[in-house]
Amino acid sequence: MSIFDHSADNDINAMQESFETWKHSGSVVNREVWLKTKDGTTFPTLIS
Fold it and tell me: CA-CA distance, 35 to 12, in Å (whole number)?
């Protein structure tokens, strides 16, 4: 299981961009991404 399994389908690109930023710089600041629950409900999340 990875964080991408929990990312909302319409927001996979934003999560991938955030992950690449984190790999290169070591941090991500104030990035909003949408995640999904087991039942498919999506919700906004701020990652830093």
Answer: 9
**E strand map for the chain:** 31-36, 42-47
| Domains in the chain, number | 1
- Report pTM: 0.75
For the stretch 2-48, pLDDT in tens is: 888 889 989 899 989 999 999 999 999 999 999 999 999 999 999 88
DSSP code for 23:
H
Print burial letters for 4-27: b (CB count within 10 Å at least 16), e (below 16).
Answer: eeebbeebeebbeebbeeeeeeee
> What range does the domain containing 21 cover?
3-47
